[in-house]
Design a protein that fits this description.
By secondary structure, the protein is an alpha/beta fold. The protein contains three helices and eight strands; from the N terminus they run βαββββαβββα. It folds into two domains: about 60 residues, 2,3-Dihydroxybiphenyl 1,2-Dioxygenase, domain 1 (Roll), CATH 3.10.180; about 80 residues, Signal recognition particle alu RNA binding heterodimer, srp9/1 (2-Layer Sandwich), CATH 3.30.720.110. The strands form two sheets. It has a four-stranded mixed β-sheet with strand order 1-4-3-2, with helices on one face. A four-stranded mixed β-sheet has the order 5-8-7-6, with helices on one face.
Amino acid sequence: MSQWLAINHVTLIVDDFDKAREFYTHVIGLEEIPAYGFDYPVQFYKINDRQQLHITEWKDTPSFRGHLCVQVADFNACFRRFKALGIIDTRPWGKVRRLKDGSMQMFIRDPAGNLIEISHPDSRTVDPDIWEDELVERGDVYVSGRGEAKGTRSDRASLYRF
């Protein structure tokens, strides 16, 4: 069996390279780093000292619910900025919420339609006015109404404790 050590990078497919590059560089604020000498549009970004995000332009169809999740330092600032930009998407997984482990969860879309989960480990740091916003709900888990629960579950599940 192979031992996975970490996620090195995630590649997102975009349909407009320039628009996506503007978004990840100036809206999200990621640091651009050099990519290999590919013959197609691609940009690498530094997330931290061990992880990268890659964007590349292809004519693919983005997933409606498939996503990557990133942890942010300041949930309040992200919520306010993303709401002002109109990019919070509550359709696939519901409204912004506090999960059972006390972490925060919201989803945004990039210009190509890729879904990004924004997470923060401590809901106690969320400003009180955010809890009253129309994009926030008090529920702690998304309910699809499908009634087809499968997979390992626990009331102690967490994005931050393993």
